[in-house]
Design goal:
The chain is an alpha+beta fold and about 150 residues long. It has a 5-stranded mixed barrel. Strand 1 and strand 2 form a beta hairpin. The protein is extended, with a radius of gyration of 26 Å. About 15% of the residues are buried.
């Protein structure tokens, strides 16, 4: 058997999360960049995002972020726009919910954007019209004991 000379294998590297509790400087958008919110995860490092310039784009998660930072539906991201393809973009950065709140406070995000830890893409008031026909009673239904089975 070969002698292990390193400091561990892939499981050791997988357990590390060095920048979990670090505060980082807030990154603002530059030229050919746009803020977006993830609407759908497509798999294979791709996602669909609604950019804040009201264009829905197919985005590619670059390799630096791919297995280190997990991006979910509803997350706020910074995307790099492509000069030659307007319908596609590349994910540059994922914002934490606190960073997204700060960006909204600075006026970088539109006022209509809702920032929550869990985001569902359902219109407000979607389930307001639901009514039930009967009330539930606390007493169990009583089955009549007068019925007999004839063989």
């Amino acid at each position: 058997m070969p002698k292990n000379k390193g400091k561990g294998g892939k499981n050791r590297r997988r357990g590390k999360n060095e920048n979990e509790y670090e505060k980082r400087e807030l990154v603002f958008k530059e030229d050919l960049q746009e803020y977006a919110q993830v609407t759908k995860m497509l798999g294979s490092g791709h996602l669909e995002a609604m950019c804040f310039d009201n264009v829905k784009r197919l985005c590619h998660i670059r390799g630096k972020l791919r297995k280190k930072i997990w991006i979910n539906q509803g997350d706020f991201i910074l995307v790099g726009l492509r000069e030659y393809q307007d319908s596609r973009a590349d994910v540059i950065l994922k914002y934490t919910p606190d960073e997204a709140r700060n960006l909204k406070a600075y006026g970088e995000f539109p006022e209509s954007v809702r920032i929550n830890d869990t985001v569902t893409f359902v219109e407000d008031g979607f389930d307001d019209g639901i009514e039930f026909d009967h009330e539930m009673s606390s007493e169990p239904d009583v089955v009549s004991s007068n019925t007999t089975l004839d063989p």
